[in-house]
Amino acid sequence: MRNQEATPRPRRSTEKASFTQERCNVERDDSDEDLGGQRNSDPKEFPFPIWSLYSSLWKAIIRPPRSDYTVDQMGPVRFRLPPFSPAQAASLGAPPRSAGENGVYERRDFRIWNNHGQAISCSHFLPSDTFEPLPCVVYLHGSSSSRMDVFPVLPALLRCHVSVFAFDFAGSGQSQGEFVSLGYYEEQDIECVLRYLRRLDIVSTVGLWGRSMGAVAALIRATQDPELGACVFESPFADFSSLVKGTIANYVSPIPDFITDMALSIVSREVLQRHGFDPRWLQPIKQAPWGICSALFGAASEDTLVPFSHVKGLSEAWGGECSLRVFEGSHCETRPECWLWEAVDFITSELHMAEELQVVADRVVHTAFERGHTESLRGPCLSRTITRSSSEADELTPRCSPQQPDPKGDVLLPEKLMCAVEEHLQQIGHGKVIEQSVTAAIEEYLHRCASEDWQRTASDSTTASVLRTVI
Asked: Are 226 and 103 in the same domain?
């Protein structure tokens, strides 16, 4: 039986490995045998040019070249960033909070296990002397990449007073697993990471920053997780089938649609047999309307792998507030600094604001229990409700509980605060059912916060700016 190599195509010098580029540069080997023990037919025996891509195409979908690196290449576990002056920040378009002296940071390396029992290699970057909770940005790499991709954006994020979490998806880098899935199983890895982070006392709010495959996985996860503070999606595709058809059209002379559909069907069946999912199931455009967190979509102007139409369609379908930006470069090129700082400013601002709203929510809930206005609580934003017994309420420890005099005048309650209150209640109530409303307690609390005396006391608090906008 012959064992032939597929003829390689030249790789673009400006592009790194990706699931579409590597499809023509993968050798045939004994893994080309199907589950029945018989070798697939030699693609060169078929008259149509699409079949010459068969072996390399399915491998490019679930087994692109794996990123190979060592932990030593990640640098020292303790490091210091150079000072960043306000003038430097202004010249680069960086947010003002990024300027100033920086302390010592550390990297904590460890492993967690995903839902399939595979070990996921993780790194958490944070200030070495931190004791207070900080927002956390989870960076998600692309296909044929690893957590090493976080380093171009890491200094900018750390300067904006957030911690950064990076990990290798299953099947990538140093994590266990044989295959990747372009976002299908990676979304479940993100779920495990979020579950871990939300147990930490040093993490407050969490946001996702994904690129290519990581952006698709982040988008799918964000549509199912209302507690995320913000997301950045770089070059996500909207529909796998249309993406592959467009890519084939770029590399192969025009062929009838029915041949392309037939080839995609056969390759998808191969992927399903080997990895348990059909890549045609990946249709983020159908899930985007369920997203509610603030999002920033980014598209490269010269991206021939994920066309601009995919990113634009996702941004238009997104259910929450979002913006779309186009930056120079191709799919895998280093991102320009103007985009980097805009994305950093967006996600860190949203996470810090969400953190401040969470502080207010803590105060609202504590006040409701403290004054005995509610034995059970329910809010207007979420369909799920919870309850707390009086003994549980006594054990609640707020982040702060100032004493304020009675207020005067009316107060407008923003929708985000109401949602933050209910999300907080959901966290502390462990899924129990609530019967009555806390609206009256919230309004009374905010009336008290409107006192001029209290605002003088809280002027140095991180929540002061939020409360002023509320009032």
From this structure: yes
